Amino acid sequence: MAHFAKLGLNNIVLEVVVVDTIDTMTPQGEEVEEVGIIFLKKLTGHEVWVQTSYNGKMRGLFAAPGMTYNSEIDEFIWAEGNIEWQE
Description:
Blueprint: E1 2-7, E2 13-19, H1 33-44, E3 49-52, E4 68-70, E5 75-77
Antiparallel strand pairs: 1-2, 1-3, 4-5
């Protein structure tokens, strides 16, 4: 399973969804983030998705609603002023 964050205005995480691994794989069997994003765009019509992971090996913290995706550092962060700011 793969997890993707749906981003809204200012890269605020709106929700996190689970995608079956098969829907993130190339025809050669390689898991690729962009394949999952294309799948989600077709499924939902929403354009902005970023993969996240429970184990912290990708983009720092696991994304949650109210967090911000900071593209400069390629991580999900809690930021003051977000819906659910954490200290």
